[in-house]
Design goal:
single chain, 160 residues, alpha/beta, seven-stranded mixed β-sheet, globular
Length: 160
């Protein structure tokens, strides 16, 4: 895995702009074969993070949640790896994820909602958990994207 270990650990991210910036700084370092598994509730910032990552990686946008298409490939604009952005929310098992036949070796792959399914795809991966505040925003779906601090925890995982 190619990302600087200084990104590991838990941090507060105050705004959507800061979330994109974190993704951008990580995206600048990614290489083909890197797998990132994003976990967090609706509105936590998974797609916002991926949008920044895509910009740092230098791929064609726009980056939107692939909820209804399951996976989108964003080709590189600068001769680097393409980004494969997957939303595993509607998938029922690791076998369904495997059926997507993702190009893991030549792409950077980001899988939203992939925890518990995607770990078998690679020997190592970045596990990124995004937490958003709970309370008022849970009752009002229009507030899910509101700027409020998020907690981001980044770990590098390996198959033992």
């Amino acid at each position: 895995m190619s990302v600087d270990p200084a990104f590991l650990g838990r941090r507060e991210v105050a705004t959507a702009e800061e979330m994109e910036q974190l993704g951008f700084r990580i995206g600048e370092q990614l290489e083909p074969g890197d797998l990132l598994i994003l976990t967090g509730p609706l509105g936590a910032g998974k797609t916002t993070f991926t949008r920044g990552l895509a910009e740092g990686l230098g791929v064609r946008g726009p980056v939107q949640s692939p909820t209804f298409v399951i996976a989108r490939t964003h080709p590189s604009l600068v001769g680097r790896a393409p980004l494969v952005h997957v939303d595993a929310y509607r998938l029922g098992s690791a076998a369904e994820l495997d059926d997507l036949d993702l190009d893991l070796e030549r792409s950077v792959v980001v899988i939203e909602w992939g925890r518990g399914m995607a770990e078998e795809l690679a020997d190592s991966w970045w596990d990124i958990e995004l937490e958003r505040p709970v309370g008022v925003t849970d009752d009002d779906p229009s507030e899910l994207d509101a700027d409020a601090p998020r907690i981001v925890t980044i770990a590098n995982e390996r198959i033992s």
